[in-house]
Amino acid sequence: MLKQVTFSLAFVLATAPAIAQQPATADKVADKTATKSHPKICKRSAPVGSMIETRRDCHTREEWNEMAQSARATGQDMVDRSAAGGH
């Protein structure tokens, strides 16, 4: 019984690094492919109320465009509600 446990443990420990490396390698290949087709654009911004802290946000061009469009729509909605007298 002790020999089986020892052999099983040795087998698991011997194969663990190989198993652990497979997903990491696949992720790196996927990241390289994604980076080539849709490069990330990074911008620095300061959170509201902070004059010292900065954040670095990285998104694709499409994501930046979607966020800008959403912000414009929110701003326009606020202007429309204000003009209509709603709160």
UniProtKB/TrEMBL annotation:
Organism: Sphingomonas faeni
Lineage of the organism: Bacteria, Pseudomonadati, Pseudomonadota, Alphaproteobacteria, Sphingomonadales
Keywords: Signal
Signal peptide residue numbers: 1-20
Domain of life: Bacteria
Protein name: Secreted protein
